[in-house]
């Protein structure tokens, strides 16, 4: 691991939630361990909506150690029932740019970050359907691309 002064850093890592229901994903945040700081460069979410009718808005929340929401954003483009869509949150993305037949043959929606997301120890990043249409029936898989800094 490279070292910069007192910081040891892995400049690009990936962490994956595995496949979960929408409810389970929202309840299983990506939490920064003690003694670390993360700089999140991108979030990727593959959301598979069930047959339950309703518009889903995939969202992320950055929360502090007291569970206070520091930053929240969601796609402005809705995901209807019976669809698989890749949602990408990253720097430089076009706002809610939708692409049919994108990554892996699935449609995709891009949403920009305001800047790299910097999370300190104990803070977490949660991903959910802001409309909470069918948390038990929808399935999702999320991954973060981030730099890990050991303090």
Class computed from helices, strands and strand pairing: mainly beta
CATH architecture heading: Sandwich
Strand content bin = over 45%
What shape does the CA trace take? globular
Taking the sheet with the most strands, its summary is: 9 strands, mixed
CATH topology, by name, is Jelly Rolls
Total discrete domains: 1
DSSP helical segment count: 1
Low-confidence stretches: 1-5
Span of the ends, CA to CA: 13 Å
Q: How large, in whole angstroms, is the Cα Rg? A: 16 Å
Mean pLDDT: 84
CATH class placement: Mainly Beta
Helical proportion?
under 10%
The SSE string, one letter per element, is: EEEHEEEEEEEEEE
Describe the structure.
With 151 residues, this protein is mainly beta. The chain has a single domain, classed as Sandwich (Jelly Rolls). Helix content is 3%, strand content 52%. The chain has one helix and 13 strands. It has one helix at residues 22-26; strands at residues 3-4, 7-16, 20-21, 30-31, 36-48, 58-63, 69-74, 84-90, 97-99, 107-112, 117-120, 124-129, 139-150. Strands 1, 2, 3, 5, 8, 9, 10, 11 and 13 form a nine-stranded mixed beta sheet that branches. The radius of gyration is 16 Å and the shape is globular. The two termini are 13 Å apart. Residues 1-5 have low confidence and may be disordered.
């Amino acid at each position: 691991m490279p070292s910069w002064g007192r910081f040891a850093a892995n400049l690009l890592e990936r962490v994956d939630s595995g496949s979960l229901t929408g409810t389970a994903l929202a309840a299983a945040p990506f939490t920064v361990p003690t003694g670390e700081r993360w700089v999140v460069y991108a979030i990727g979410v593959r959301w598979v909506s069930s047959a339950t009718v309703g518009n889903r808005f995939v969202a992320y929340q950055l929360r502090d150690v007291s569970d206070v929401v520091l930053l929240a954003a969601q796609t402005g483009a809705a995901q209807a029932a019976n669809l698989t869509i890749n949602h990408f949150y990253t720097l430089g993305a076009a706002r809610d740019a939708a692409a049919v037949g994108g990554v892996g043959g699935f449609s995709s929606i891009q949403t920009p970050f305001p800047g790299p997301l910097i999370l300190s120890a104990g803070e977490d990043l949660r991903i959910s359907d802001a409309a909470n249409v069918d948390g038990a029936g929808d399935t999702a898989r999320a991954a973060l691309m981030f730099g890990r800094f050991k303090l």
